[in-house]
Amino acid sequence: MRERGRSYRYVGPAELKAAVRPDHGGRRIGSATAFDGRIAEQPPAELTEPFTFVVGVDGVLRLAPRRSEHVACAGGDMVLGAGEISFARAAGRWTVNEVSNHSTGYCPDVTSWPEVARALDSVGLPHPSGFTHEVVFRRCPDCQEHNIVREDDFVCVFCGSDLPAAWNVDPIA
After folding, report:
1. Phi then psi for 161, rounded to 5 degrees?
2. What distance separates the 2 farthest-apart alpha carbons in the chain?
3. Does the global pTM surpass 0.70?
4. How many CB atoms lie within 10 A of CB 65?
5. Phi/psi at 85 (nearest 5 deg)?
6. Going by C-beta distance under 8 Å and a sequence separation of 6 or more, which residues neighbour residue 65?
7. Residues 80, 9 contacting (CB under 8 angstroms)
8. What Å distances lie between residue 42 and 39, 45, 48, 78, 94, CA to CA?
9. What's the rounded Cα separation, in Å, for the pair 151 and 167?
10. Is 79 helix (H, G, I), strand (E, B) or coil?
């Protein structure tokens, strides 16, 4: 069995996780047929917006509407990757147009890309060679707040402390 990458616990607001109903998570997309079925259900206007996605610890892609919380999409479970993803038709088939690791509930590192790529490959979805928009998350060692690092400025927006170069969002990971 292939070794999986780092898994991510939910680190967002506890009340959002408490509201998760495991039977209402994101739709499992384990095959091209499952993907085609999910896309066919969407009104055309919904396809213009990105989806919320997670890759479960089982390596399977899960999709939910964009305004869904990642923790709900994951059914409250740990993930190998999370973010937003959009699709486009090209040469008569669906492809990944854009994909990011933007999930403030899981704050996955940019190194989660290989797990996302494997999940997309298993569905047969052509995709970019990496995240089209990388989000760098760090936890401030002083005030403990989660930060999004912008323009390589590794300074906490809450207290002004320096942020570490390496991913550190989940102190238990």
Report:
1. -75, 155
2. 52
3. yes
4. 14
5. -145, 140
6. 46, 51, 52
7. no
8. 5, 8, 10, 27, 14
9. 16
10. strand
